[in-house]
Amino acid sequence: MADVKLENIVKQYEDVTAVDDMNLDIKHGEFVTFVGPSGCGKSTTMETIAGLTKPTSGTVMIGERDVTDLPPKDRGISMVFQNIALFPHMDVYDNISFGLRLRKYDKSEIDRRVEKAAEVVQLNGMMERMPDEMSGGQRQRVAIARAIVRNPDVFLMDEPLANLDAKLRVHMRTELQRLHKELDTTIIYVTHDQAEAMTMSDRIAVINAGQLQQIDPPLVCYNEPANLFVAGFIGSPSMNFVEGEVAGSGFTSDDVKVSFNPSDYNLGRGKDVTLGVRPEDVYLANNSREAADPTVPLTATTDVLEPMGNEIFAYLTFDEDATSSMTDAQLPGQLLISVDPDTEIEEDQEIEVVLDRSKIHLFDTAGGKALTHEITDTGATSTAGADAEVGTDD
Amino acid sequence: MSIDSSVRVGIVGLGGIGHHHAERLKEQAVTLAGGVDISDGARERFTERFDVPAYADAEELYTVCDAVLITTPNRFHEEYAVSALEAGLDVMLEKPLAHTLESAERIADVAHEAEGFCMVGFNNRFGNPVEVIKQYQQDGRFGELTHIEANYIRRRGVPGRGSWFTSKAVAGGGSVIDIGVHAIDLALYFLDFPDVVEVSGVTRSEFGNREDYTFVEMWGEDAGAEGFDVDDSASAFIRTADDKTISLEVAWATNRPSNNEFVLRGTEAGAHYDRASHELTIYEAAKHGGDHLSDSSIETRSNDTHKAEQTYFLEHVSTGETPARNTVEQALSVQRVMDGIYRSSETGRAVQLE
């Protein structure tokens, strides 16, 4: 059994804190993915677990062992990187078996393990191929087999699919999931690809500025983001945000008002809050019955339309001055919605939309912390102002 | 530390630098156990000169050795370093670590896990003036070193055209990877190997590729311009995470005087070191007794840097202790900078190193 625990890990480089008091408890057999923007500390955290980076302070536990001061080779881990790093002068068998030969394993044991690993990654019959005779996907399988033969307690994978083309990446995602099931081992995985994180992980650890923002199953991160950062980072396209404040009747901004009883959420009047709603939780008013709990309709104008095939992304504007050059969802006076591909919709068309109150999130604007992930109906009615607009109030 | 006389050392790669090392090993208190080369002629010459066996298959040498010096062309460093480490031997690998960054990283990965250690042949660090500079730096005499000018400029000195030195496929590059590697290593060594974050450089090929290349002396034979596909000079600027900087000038050939000078600029003192003449001067200023500037000329014994490096290696082979100097990690940092210079030159812009 190999649980991985990080206790108060700090990694300081000169005046930059790459990892800031990180605490993680990963159970044996879990598939946990680290996600976050470039430079957020996800790879440094991984390197700390691997032993490639020594933390400034804190403890790394693998199983019952404190491995903080152990070199990588003594930690019971195997690593797979974006850079596949096969030895070009060795064939597949020699590449896979190299780590075992370095550790002086018996030939018969090496043969047994290589054969089993090759079977898992479906490389049987290719043992004598040289790396330059193989495709990118095959080479990555060799790299994974090389990690498997060591029977590690923990696999560490840092963007292992990043160098593969899109189609192969999707295929290898399912391969890795199958591998995880077969090996019943702990996998810690770093990626910037949300689809990988969402589809493969038991839990996602969202990291920003060296700090753990949330660690939860993918759908919990998606549906119940712990704070504004997670809400904005998880999900593509991003959640829409509207800054406002708590009034006696609920949420209010220059543009949007949503009624609820503030005391139900322990919110004081005048508190700055941000309303968040995902594009798929905004509906055309004539489809409002699809929303579990629709607000009253808001009138808006379509700006840019992006037909994706299976859906259309429509950028709505509530601001007469907005132009079609404003294409980001979070621009002032804009709201991104997702509609059915068969919807008859054109640019510069006046439409009415509703938000699903049961999917509205509220965040503390100052600290970013989530306050609620639904607005429940307490008898009050959701209203939009007469000059109803959705957007930020600046 | 002392050298255990029972230590047996082999040499992999029996060309010029292999012989150079073998000569010195014969003067050390260890046994030169043999050599490896794929060339029949090279093996014969080695056996004849040093009266030890020479093998075509490295595995045969590994069974009669405790350590090896690898002096092959750059492209073969990985194959022999990896197999020697796999055999449980200690390894000293001639510079550069490898012909490409990817190959260097693979060697480093193996070295991290191997029983034996891998040291990299940056012999210039063992020159007595460099030892003095390093001691002063550790004593704090320079304050904080903030900028290094590193020069390794030959007026004419392209090595044997047509040999592996001038083939990108085998050497991995030209002047930068052959002699720039020393200048970069010394500069980073003086700065205590800070994280390099940005490299901007231009490499040129202006002389070695010319049929009318004019020279007075050449190391090796001249087979003409055909096949010359590497750089013969480069200029680069290197910035570290804490804003320390290195300006680098490297050339196998230029129309200017040769220069192998290093200038160190520190907050409390500076230094000028001419590696060609071994002259070292420390530049200081003080207030006591009235504002004054002070230049100290440092005289040291001249020494054989390859032999001093070997002694350090053999002492560590004897004790089994991993050397703190000339580590694979440091060599990998040098390799990343060289790779950065080549990428910067190719792309026409500064490159960020992660």
UniProtKB/TrEMBL annotation, chain A:
Residues 4-234 form the ABC transporter domain. GO terms for molecular function: ABC-type transporter activity; ATP binding; ATP hydrolysis activity. It is found in: Cell membrane. InterPro entries: AAA+_ATPase, ABC_transporter-like_ATP-bd, ABC_transporter-like_CS, ABC_transpr_MalK-like, ABC_transpr_MalK/UgpC-like, Mo/tungstate-bd_C_term_dom, NA-bd_OB-fold, OB_MalK-like. One of its GO terms (biological process) is carbohydrate transport. Its main location: membrane. Its EC number is 7.5.2.13. It is a peripheral membrane protein. It catalyses: D-xylose(out) + ATP + H2O = D-xylose(in) + ADP + phosphate + H(+); L-arabinose(out) + ATP + H2O = L-arabinose(in) + ADP + phosphate + H(+). One of its GO terms (cellular component) is ATP-binding cassette (ABC) transporter complex, substrate-binding subunit-containing. Keywords: ATP-binding, Nucleotide-binding, Transport. Pfam families: ABC_tran, OB_MalK. CDD domains: ABC_MalK_N. The complex is composed of two ATP-binding proteins (XacJ and XacK), two transmembrane proteins (XacH and XacI) and a solute-binding protein (XacG). Part of the ABC transporter complex XacGHIJK involved in the uptake of xylose and arabinose. Responsible for energy coupling to the transport system. Belongs to the ABC transporter superfamily. Carbohydrate uptake transporter-1 (CUT1) (TC 3.A.1.1) family. This is ABC-type D-xylose/L-arabinose transporter. It comes from Natronocalculus amylovorans.
From TrEMBL, chain B:
SUPFAM superfamilies: Glyceraldehyde-3-phosphate dehydrogenase-like, C-terminal domain, NAD(P)-binding Rossmann-fold domains. Residues 133-270 form the GFO/IDH/MocA-like oxidoreductase domain. Residues 7-122 form the Gfo/Idh/MocA-like oxidoreductase N-terminal domain. It comes from the Archaea. GO terms for molecular function: nucleotide binding. It holds the Pfam family GFO_IDH_MocA. PANTHER family: D-GLUCOSIDE 3-DEHYDROGENASE, UDP-N-ACETYL-2-AMINO-2-DEOXY-D-GLUCURONATE OXIDASE. This is Gfo/Idh/MocA family oxidoreductase.
